[in-house]
Amino acid sequence: MKKKLFNHGLWLKIMKISLIQLVFAICFIGVSYSRDANAQKVLETRISIRLEDKSLKTILSKLGKEARVKFMYSAEVIQADRINSLNAENQSLGEVLDAFLSPLNILYRSTNNGIILTPKAIGPGQAYAMQPTKTELTITADIVIKGKISDEKGEKLPGVSINIKGTTSGSSTDTNGDYSIAVPNEKAILVFRYIGYLPQEVLVGDRTNLNIMLEVDNKGLEEVVVVGYGTAKKKDLTGAVSSVNIEDTRLQPNTNASQILRGTTAGVQVTDNGRPGQAGNIRIRGINSISASTAPLIVLDGIIYAGGSLADINPGDIETIDVLKDASSTAIYGSLAANGVIEITTKKGKTGKPKFTFNSYGGVSDYAFLPKYLNAGQYLAARKDAENAAGGAVPFQPVELENIAAGNIIDPFEVIRQDAPISNYEFSVAGKADKVNYFFSGAYMDAKSPVKGDNFNRISSRLNLGVQATDWLKLGVNSGYSSRDDSGVRANISATTYLSPFASLYMPDGVTPRVLPMDIGLVANPIFGYLRNTRNSIATTLFTNVYADVNIFKGLTYKINGGYTRTDSKLFAYNPTFAPTNALGSGSKRTGESQNFTLENIVKYQKTIAEKHNLDLTLLYGIYELDNQFSSLSSQNIFNDALGYNALEIGDGFNVDAGASQNRQISNMARFGYSYSSKYFLTLSMRRDGYSAFGEGRKYGIFPAAALSWNVTEEEFLKNSNYINFLKLRVSWGRNGNRGVSEYSSLSNIRQSNYVFGDGAASSVGLFPTSFANPNLGWETSESFNVGLDLELFSSRITSSINFYTTNTFDLLLNQSIPNTNGFETFLRNIGETSNKGLEIDLKTVNIKKGDFSWNTNLAFSFNRNKIVKLTGRDIDKNGIEDDDIASGWFIGKPLNSNFDYIFDGIYQTGDDLSLIPGAKVGDIRFKDISGPLGVPDGKITPNDRTVISNALPDFIMGITNIFRYKGFSLSSAFNIREGGMSTMSSLNPGSNFYDQANFQDVPYWTPTNPINTAPRIDYRNPLGYGFYSDRSFVRLQDVSIAYEIPQKLLSKIRINTLQIFASGKNLATWTNWKGWDPEFGSGGRDVGTNGPLLKTFTAGFNLTF
Amino acid sequence: MKKIIKNIAIIVFATLFTTSCKDDYLKEVPLDRFSPENLLTNEAGYDAAVVSLYQGARQEHIIASNNFEYMTVSTDQTQWGRNDSRGNKDYSLLNSNLEATMIYWDWAYVTMIARANLILAGIDNPSLSITKEARNNIKGQALFFRAYTYNFLANIYGGVPIVDGRLVEPKFDFVRVTRAEVLRFVATDLERASELLPLEVRDGRIPRAASFHLLSEVYISIGMETKDASFYDRSITAASKVINKEAGDYQLITARFGPAATGPGDVFSDIFAQGQINKSSGNKEVIWAWQFESTTPGGSFTVNQGNNSIRYWSPQPYNLRSPNGILNVIADSLGRGIGVNSPTNYVKYDIWKLDPRDMRNSRFNIKRVFYYNNPADREYFGRPIITRRGANGNLFIVRNDNTLTTIPLDTLQIYYPLIGKILGSPLNNDVLSGNTSKDFSRMRVAETYLLRAEAYFRKGDLATAARDINVIRTRALARNILSSDVTEDFILDERSRELIVEEPRLRTLIRMGRLVDRVRTYNSAPSVPNGPAAGRTIKDFNKFWPIPQKVIDANTGAKFEQNPNY
Question: Is the pLDDT of residue B297 over 70?
Fold first, then answer.
């Protein structure tokens, strides 16, 4: 091939073209040259194949599978339906092609995307061009359209077939990719087809010149999925792996990767915490562990992303997300992967011509879902009810009285509101030059929550670089840098819920914040800190992964992966002098550093034996280390605010805190893959992990896995089915360990707490233990069994993946509640067994595809049933059934997260017999007397009457996305649905929510004049600590986006490839009976902790490539 | 094919099982934290563990913060003063699920006993290089706190499980022993502590006198529980060790002292003045005090973590209006109370009827007059608040011209006598917090006299009992009593006069078996007309608190008995 570039004809041609073209040509020479090295490698692949009397198309397809290479050609031009035979025995692909194609007058050319076939007559370098094929035209030809067809790299594509839609008329391109075709009128649609590329339809319009760029088709079942220490073709998978359709989420204002997973993937449950820019909580296949971590393992570009947060990854940089769910897929990550694995792959440069992308959006956020607190009128009415219940005055505070008199009313959630804009800018360049492929991006995102002081911005950049240094060595680096800034003092949301509509947040001067807006200690000023204090918080993360891929000899490769993640965090805070409370300044400076090292040695060996037996062996030896350290300084009584936290030394009450921690892991893994004739696939793997945080002698665990799959459509009886395009059955088994406990968990920890002896004396250090040591702490092991089915029906109009699984987890790492007579409340230990059973269905359908209109639906459905199988095995009451552990909330045969409580039995109404509950009054909750000391009802409500009444786990979760497309327009809507699960909601009881002093939630309560039977009186003290359960089912319209792709004919003039404009809304509406904070994270009290109110976000933006 | 499989097998096994040499890599060496093994290696390490006991002991005052005071509210001394949904005012709510029953239990076992046992488990290790004196002192303090805590438990819950050593793995089969056994265990610890503790200590530390003081109380309890009168003699002996200065230089203070002596006040108010609770300031009467300090790590200076006395005990004069309708302001000198521990009439009036001139009832020790303090009201600023009962029996504010206003006074939450002991400097100068940085007297020689008097009384020696009580009364310039005046109730009254605020009254009443009847007698007025009142809701079985249900639930290896009727 190299020689051909320098042949006579080409030189002649080059001399004719202009100088600029010369420069381009040189570039292409370079590209071609580089491809040769790769191409050479492909052509060396050894092949054994035997095919008798098949169409050329079939032969090429089989050969392509065998050699793992794609053939690209025009079926018409090379006459792909010719019948032929091919026999080869351990020959190189090059030899096979030479021998096979030459008699057929077909030339081949190897590129990185595959092998391009062209008829000999129009082979490159020929001085004469092939004339476009003239076909009889049944319609009068009015307009002649001419143009050039090239691929993404600008490479000319000869032999592309061009048809007029709805007719048999057609043409094809010549050597230079030029074509011409006569069309009847402006409404004609041209269809461009080239195997290996996506077909393209173009409306002729008023143009006579149409240059087309075809895109490589890497969709569908040929899609490559990341499976851990390697990739696999989706159709060859043995395990349960879901790929997220990233393209469908591009138009959503997702500030981090976890939002992409929300409702898009069966078996994946994502809880958005409502804070701008923060990663949500992700769970795969329910909860396996309780005390140990339930967070899945994140693998970024093939290396474990420990120490970093999903919030550090710019969603725009992500090319694919694959979720590994069953034990066989995850077992190769062993102990790290008990909760599933999320494989994220960032973009790489693919094509020679640089592709520039500029995306941006802007918008605003609002509260999506707030619990309703009393407004002014309701607040006054409730106080009346409180007085009626108390039988005496329940006075307002003087400040409230003044505001009531003056008619000053505030809306608590409005007084903590700020403008909440969101804006995002991303720029990237991807390309491939010489022996280097590159992807570079930079992004800036700025978002605010409507809660004052809740701010976020992120600057991120990424550089992915791959270098084919020699034909046996590939080097690369994938690196990302991000700086997250969430400076600001967020308004205190819990305090906001207490605010009376008649509270005063400011002193009479209207500027100075009032420390106690209701003059009671219970209610703090939610924006005091926001108004007065400074808090600077920045975390920068550098993620780098360098690798070297060495091709040792045929089929044997060695890869070394080195990963380093470093996070530096700074938290500087200063509270200035505040005269009204005589407070002098105080401040703190804290810096932290977290370093994560990974080193992995991977040896792979691939071998094909006797044509049909493919062996694939992967061996891994890896070490992982996490080092954290921090230091923190603080002081009080700083008499001058001028220097803030940079002059802590002028204060007193100095406090110094220094800390560090470390954990380490060693892993060995072997995976053996075997496939027979693309029909049967077997994967066996074994991993051995050692983790430093476990007790001596308990540090190592061994985790085996096995999986089988059968590609039924490769069998003769289904091969030519018109309905079933693809069918695969999968079964897998495996064990995983969970190491999700932090370092030093097996040791008895000591904490510091000081004391001062004497007035004005210095601190004396006090140290005391906070936990038992547990030298026996070891691995938690999960054993899973998965049966799956992948299906494509009716010309791939329906694509589905169904998985059923059972997981039994043994020796759970649990924080057991122990009698605190021991000196500690809990004990972290390995105990018991739980089982999870579940079903997951991913269903993608093309409902309508007619002309320019299409309607697609993606559905992700999953349910999981959890139960405790075994605990300590103790049976104190000797009833033959293992005892429950009430204190820990664990009940044999019941799910974790069970609600153990009294049974609600209505409300005591006037005249009812109150003797069941001592001290009960009318308006109290009546509970069911189900048991007593002797196991039978005893006419008294005692702790014996508690039982498991419900659990907090959902019955099922589902996500449905509908996408409508018409010409350049697309409209998509995504619903997220949760059914079932009861959580406690303490806000349902005003009686334990300071109904007589502060604001409380607008919930019904019993009064003598409104004697309801569902909620107790306003002043119910809840003496038995009943949990007030509420259903967390919800249906949410989660994402709606509308986009328009500007027609190319308008863009090509200004040298833009694609331009899409869009508008979208997130969390637009939620239907639920749950009255607390958002049902997704389900906090039912006043406090939302570190969560925030869920945000509703409207954005508009554009995506541009050129 | 076979060869390939064989080769693969060799490689797999070689990589999987050849890592024994790297075990050091996984050896865990904590970088930033101690464990008992690397902490308790020398005197300083053990003393750090002892310091954590002092910090823990102070928590007894602080843990009640969100639930307020359970040691006096709904006893005979105070009632819940606020008309709100919190607080202890209804004994029918005292069940095994009530948070208060848990927090005090948790404090005892988690905060105190486990820490003490850890020290005691290792301090006698002969390989420890430590002086005998230091060893004794460390051991003595740990024994004292363990005893103090078990005595606390016995006087709230009755009999409890005794954990007398360091547990290294959890137990699930705790069983309760009798209250007498717990008390005997306490006495044994205190007897050992009394031999080990030094006579003179640094401010805030436990001196030998503290162990004898507590012993005198515990012996009384044992005598009552076992009906063995010889324990009263032992109690008298123990108290005498303190009173006779055999256990250190502690005594009743009879003359004014310290910087406070130069200001208005009397001996009694000097004892509780800011900055002169500790012995180094000249206060030889206080044997042990919880230490508080503003803006000093270890001084417990965050909001509601300081000395909470004002917050709990003070009324809210800042919520009063002048006859002109001008609201008072929060005064630096009074702080910001929230009217939680509202004294019963028993404390406000009854106990002072014996001798109204009792120094402990002086204007320096009980503030009964408040002033208009808002300068915005020129007419009333600086004038005392005058009140008079109106026609409906309620108290109203009186104008300068002696006419009644229509401003009624809430005498439960806003306007009631303020006990001077609670006052001190605002914590971190923050008046709003209602917290002070004043040290809190936990043990005082005056109480030692009252304990000895009680022992004499129970022994039948009323004359000597009266003599001890009269020592206290004499110092307070109050009328002396006769032997015939000495009754259990009188002792309880005298304790109220002398020890109000300082005394955990609940424990005293349970100790004497008098909780139920005294609450019925003195605390039966509801805060609101139809509301619950402690004295109307208390039942006989409330003589002890219930064991927290969570402990019973978690004790899966043996049945943990609940107190009867809970």
Answer: yes
The highest-confidence range among A260-274, A359-373, B168-182, by mean pLDDT, is: B168-182
Q: Quick check: B110 and A820 CB within 8 A?
A: yes
The whole-angstrom distance between B554's CA and the closest CA on chain A is 5
HEC-encoded secondary structure of B374-392: CCCCCCCCCCECCEEECCC
In angstroms, rounded to a whole number, what is the distance separating the alpha carbons of residues A172 and A154?
Answer: 18
Which residues 471-510 on chain B approach chain A with CB closer than 8 angstroms?
A: none
**Token pair of A382 as six digits:** 């409730």
Mutate to test the interface with B, among A588, A595, A688, A767 (most CBs of B within 10 A): A767
pLDDT at B421: 95
Tokens 């196991």 -> residue = A935
Q: Which residue has the tokens 């007030």?
A: A1028
Q: Which region, left, alpha or beta, applies to residue B204 given φ > 0 means left and ψ of -120 to 50 means alpha?
A: left
Contact at 8 Å (CB) between A321 and A344? Answer: yes
Q: Which residue in B47, B163, B431 is closest to A821 by CB distance?
A: B163
Cβ-nearest to B15 among A584, A621, A659: A621
Q: Are A1017 and A923 in contact (CB under 8 A)?
A: yes
Strand partners, A959: A860, A976
Residue A304 confidence (pLDDT) above 80: no
Q: Calculate mean pLDDT across residues B452-465.
A: 96
Confidence of residue A36 (pLDDT cuts 50, 70, 90): very low
Say if strands A341-346 and A318-324 run parallel, antiparallel, or are unpaired.
antiparallel
* Chain A residues near residue B117 by CB distance under 8 angstroms: 823
Instruction: Chain A: give the shortest CA distance to residue B320, in Å.
Output: 9
> Exposure pattern of B397-417 as b/e (b: 16+ CB <10 Å)?
bbbeeeebbebbbbbbbbbbb
Is B22 in Cβ contact with A994 (below 8 Å)? Answer: no
Tell me if B36 and A769 make a contact (CB, 8 A cut-off).
yes
Average pLDDT over residues A126-148: 52
Would you say A894 and A921 are in contact if contact means Cβ atoms under 8 Å apart?
no
Give the Cα separation of A412 and A849 in Å (integer). Answer: 50
Q: Between B208 and A783, where is the model more confident? A: B208
Q: Tally Cβ neighbours within 10 Å of residue A576.
A: 17
Residue among B221, B151, B243 nearest B452 (CA): B243
Q: Determine the pLDDT at residue A344.
A: 82
Amino acid at A241: V
The closest of A813, A701, A600, A21 to A335, measured between CA atoms, is: A701
Inter-residue contact A558 to A605 (CB < 8 Å): no
Report chain B residues whose CB lies below 8 A from the CB of A774: 169
Q: Are strands B341-343 and A585-609 parallel, antiparallel or unpaired?
A: unpaired
Global pTM value = 0.81
Helix (H) or strand (E) holding A862: strand A853-870
A525, A651, A832, B428 from B293: Cα distances, Å? 26, 16, 48, 8
The enclosing H or E element of A1038 equals strand A1034-1045
Query: Looking up tokens 């011209």, which residue turns up?
Result: B401
Instruction: For residue A673, give the chain B residue with the closest CA.
Output: B8
Q: pLDDT at position A76, please?
A: 67
pLDDT at B52: 95
Shortest CA gap B66–chain A (Å):
9
Q: Is B27 within 8 Å of chain A by CB?
A: yes
Between positions 46 and 65 of B, the ones with CB within 8 A of A are 47-56, 58
Chain A residues inside the 8 Å CB shell of B528: 390-393
Least confident of A35-39, A995-999, B386-390: A35-39
- The pLDDT assigned to B216 comes to 97
Residues of chain A contacting B46 with CB distance shorter than 8 Å: none
